[in-house]
Design goal:
461 residues; alpha/beta; Nucleotidyltransferase, domain 5; Rossmann fold; 3 domains; 6-stranded mixed beta sheet; 5-stranded mixed beta sheet; 22% strand; globular
Length: 461
């Protein structure tokens, strides 16, 4: 017997799918452990191994393919939990990240805030060099300026460095030498070369891709190396593959060489799964994926996933090609609240895995979408997670009445119905954003729903 294993870490649950060569299919959900994702991964693997009638060591020894989707990089950027990083650039061009491409995304919004930079201006250091658009050296690299930059970065205590020099995609000689000097002067500090991450013109996008890679690299290295080593010690004979933002997979080594490719990689798996599920009918699909934290929608047109070169994370372009996914903060753990005008809102804040919705009985007090499901009878309290957790209907009703019902003079059930309708409306708006507002008629598409809560909404949507 041999197995293929898929693991996806979400904000609320970590999901496992096992396929045996004899047709066996095992699925499992484990609560995510944000403090250390490997805890949930190991617990889930032990559970699926037991369901396959074997030990974890034997199970992993028979595993021929293990694919892992992780939100580690995405969460690091969104939550701004990455380390202090530096940027070495061509002298006079340290504000490329600030000036961007010269356009405002919402040009008539006078209150639009500039995205927070991932690298402070004083850590964006220019070095004397210049290569022309034809690849010819117009100003030789001044290695003394690189040494001064290395000294400043060392004293600042940076944990990673990005190098992005003008026209390096045409001639990478200066960028390579700069990175070599930095590695010699900053032992143990990873150095990312922009032309390796995105070997294309467009200075802002290329620099941003390198900076994003440097920003997430230390945390990705700690997590993925630990993940890989833990699996190896437990009996896995083959290296795991990591999901990429383009819907494909890569080795751990390749991901750590270009970490930006792991950003937004989790939602990128949904269109591929939808293509498989739809089979011969996989021509034009609307793919909706509703999990515990977010709702992701994407399109499949003419049998192929839609790709984008303009994806951004927290206002920063990732630069590389990725599956076009539109995401909103509406999931099973999204918190419901009422504004001063008496309107119900859902999200973007989420109760997450800990403490979770009120009905979990783990200390969460805010009303969530999952609490609404319980109040409406969409979830059987005794059957949640296959009976491994009993949901507290009384706590769900209490939270719904307190947070939504009392401000609107509704009972808990009617408050839950209002929350459900708001979430449905958000989903419809998200689908319209990728279809109708782009001139596409959704009536010719098939709707494929996935995620832990997708089936609870697909009919109404």
């Amino acid at each position: 017997m041999s197995y293929r294993v898929g693991i996806d870490i979400g904000g609320t649950f970590t999901d496992f799918v096992v396929i045996g060569d004899d047709g066996l299919v095992v699925t499992w959900k484990e609560e995510s452990t944000p403090e250390d994702s490997t805890i949930a991964v190991r617990a889930g693997l032990e559970a699926v191994a037991a369901r396959c009638g074997t030990t974890l060591d034997a199970f992993l020894g028979q595993t021929t393919l293990l694919v892992h989707g992780t939100t580690t990089a995405m969460n690091t950027v969104i939550q701004r939990t990455g380390p202090r990083v530096g940027l070495v650039c061509t002298e006079g061009f340290r504000d490329v990240l600030y000036f961007r491409n010269g356009f405002k995304p919402d040009r008539f919004n006078i209150h639009l805030r500039h995205p927070r930079p991932l690298v402070d201006r004083w850590l964006r250091i220019g070095v004397e060099e210049r290569i022309g658009a034809d690849g010819e050296v117009t100003t030789p690299l001044d290695e003394a300026s690189v040494l001064r930059a290395a000294d400043q970065l060392r004293r600042a205590g940076v944990e990673a460095v990005a190098v992005a020099l003008l026209w390096a995609p045409v001639n990478q000689r200066h960028e390579r030498r700069t990175a070599e000097i930095l590695r010699e002067e900053l032992p143990g500090i990873p150095v990312i070369e922009a032309a390796d991450v995105l070997p294309e013109i467009r200075e802002w996008e290329r620099t941003s891709a390198a900076v994003l890679s440097a920003y997430v690299l230390p945390e990705m290295t700690r997590y993925l190396r630990g993940f890989e080593e833990d699996l190896r010690r437990s009996g896995l004979r083959r290296s795991p593959l990591i999901m990429q933002t383009n819907g494909g997979c890569a080795s751990v080594d390749e991901i750590l060489r270009r970490p930006v490719y792991s950003l937004a990689s989790g939602p990128a798996a949904a269109p591929a799964a939808a293509l498989h599920v739809a089979g011969a009918d996989a021509s034009d699909l609307i793919v909706m994926d509703l999990g515990g934290t977010s709702f992701d929608v994407s399109l499949v047109t003419s049998g192929g996933m839609e790709l984008s070169r303009s994806m951004e994370i927290e206002g920063q372009p990732i630069g590389v090609t990725g599956v076009a996914v539109h995401s909103i903060g509406a999931g099973g753990g999204s918190i419901a609240w009422v504004d001063g005008g008496g309107a119900i809102h859902v999200g973007p804040l989420s109760a997450g895995a800990r403490p979770g919705p009120a009905c979990y009985g783990e200390g969460g007090r805010r009303a969530t979408v999952t609490d609404a499901y319980v109040a409406l009878g969409y979830l059987e309290p005794q059957a949640f997670l296959g009976g491994r957790r009993v949901l507290r209907e009384d706590l769900a009703l209490e939270a719904l009445e307190r947070d939504v019902g009392q401000p609107l003079e509704l009972d808990a059930v009617h408050a839950a119905a209002g929350i459900k309708r708001v979430v449905d409306a958000h989903m419809v708006a998200a689908i319209q954003a990728v279809s109708v507002k782009r001139g596409l008629d959704p009536r010719g598409f098939k709707l494929v729903a996935g995620g832990g809560a997708g089936g609870l909404h697909v009919g109404q949507v």
